[in-house]
Amino acid sequence: MANNSILLKGGKVLIHGANDVVTTKETDILVEGNKIAKIAPSISASTSSTMVIDCKDRLISPGFIDTHRHLWQTQLKGRHIDETLYEYLPTGNMACYFYSPDDVYFGTLGGCLESIDAGTTTIVDHAHMAYSKEICEAGAEALEASGVRATYCITPTNRVNKWGPKLEMNFEAIPTWWDDMYSSLAKSIPQGSGRVRLGLGYDSYMIGKDATTEVFKKARNAGAKIITSHSVHNFTPVPSLKDFNLLGPDILISHFNNFSASTVSDLVSTGGHVSATPSTELQMTHGYPVCFQPDLAAVSSLGVDCHSATSASLVSEMRLALQAARSVYNQPFTEKGSPAPKLNIKAVEVFNLATIKGARACGMENEIGSIAEGKLADLVIWDMTTPGMVAAAEHDGVAAIVAHSSVRDVEGVIVDGVVRKEQGVLRDVDVRGKTMEWKDISRSLVEGREGLQKKLDTLDYGQVGRDLAAMWG
């Protein structure tokens, strides 16, 4: 599956320069191993075995970086589009109670491949389905098999003990098997030539300073690259992180809507970052996405969050974030009876959220997020001749992607120097020693979804919701 070298000939390449300005350059790209070896006109193949890709009428962009995702949820797709956060919790978040290790494996694999198909090459997986050591290991195994670049932020999870007749939760924040499991993962990760890195997801600050500090200490000592936490509604972990002296550049906060300037300053001043997820935030009553908020724009990035509630396309998130921000800015002008004289945000700003700023949020700015010699070869090849892209890409490559593209326009994807999508089709993957096409993986996902649905159909969600409301006061 891997090539020692790949030569992309004659493409229009989106190159980041000073101040994150993006320009289009017609050039060749030579990939050797997993890195970009050379960018120049008229490069010759380095060996007779070099894979040559004709990129005439093709646009080449950096691979996209998704900084907040729950990859295990593929089998739950289709059921959350009309739900608030509190309606989603029992139907989505807590449904991992019913997942076997195989369900987690194929759910995670499916989420990764949907992402690659849409041009995403790096994902921060906030894996909040940690019911057992075997389930945690299955998620890591699927990341490695998928070919995506990922940080596996396995997360201590509040677990269901019993669904009925009255909901019973297990609030043991750190299960007895956690330390052994995490140590075992630390020994096996990085995987895939460093493609899969270890991180930590953490939302259990209620257990206090000493216990939380110990979890963070062990994770950082084990090599965790990112520690990520949710910040939603009236809860943000930033004050606790500050009080516990745990803030730092490895902290990545998802959502972070509607918090005070001092709380924002505490995160930003210590090098932390934010992942905005426009689709779920606007739907699930989180609040307005903060990715263009003046005091957070410099440290923001984009995530899909739940691909069970929306698509895995970061272009969709770009488009929604951009137009929502413009709408809020324009509305006061409209109310006064005169249109805004100019737009407040440019397309390149949201493009950067999913590329170079995503790389910064992952602590990987020198490795991914832009196309440059010496960086890792994570590239997306766009067909400029499709009905969606035609004429747009010739005028402005960034505008073509942000405003006009769809998944069908993603002709090729290279992750870590390996072609993962070619001529519009996902390449086969090795699933536990067996080569599988996407149609085989999709069949496994549908079968898993059917088995899962039978279990979910036994639940009284009305009663579960009342029980949760009573627990939360």
Salient structural properties:
473 residues; alpha/beta; nine-stranded mixed β-sheet; five-stranded parallel β-sheet; 15 helices; 34% helix
- Helicity range: 25-40%
Annotation field: number of helices: 15
Q: Which residues sit in consecutive blocks of at least 5 with pLDDT less than 50?
A: none
Mean pLDDT: 96
The gyration radius over C-alpha positions equals: 22 Å
Q: Note the main sheet.
A: 9 strands, mixed
Number of strands: 22
Approximately how much beta-strand content do the residues carry?
15-25%
Detailed description of the structure:
By secondary structure, this protein is of the alpha/beta class. The chain has 15 helices and 22 strands. Strands 1, 2, 3, 4, 5, 17, 18, 19 and 20 form a nine-stranded mixed beta sheet that branches. The model has no long low-confidence stretch (mean pLDDT 96).
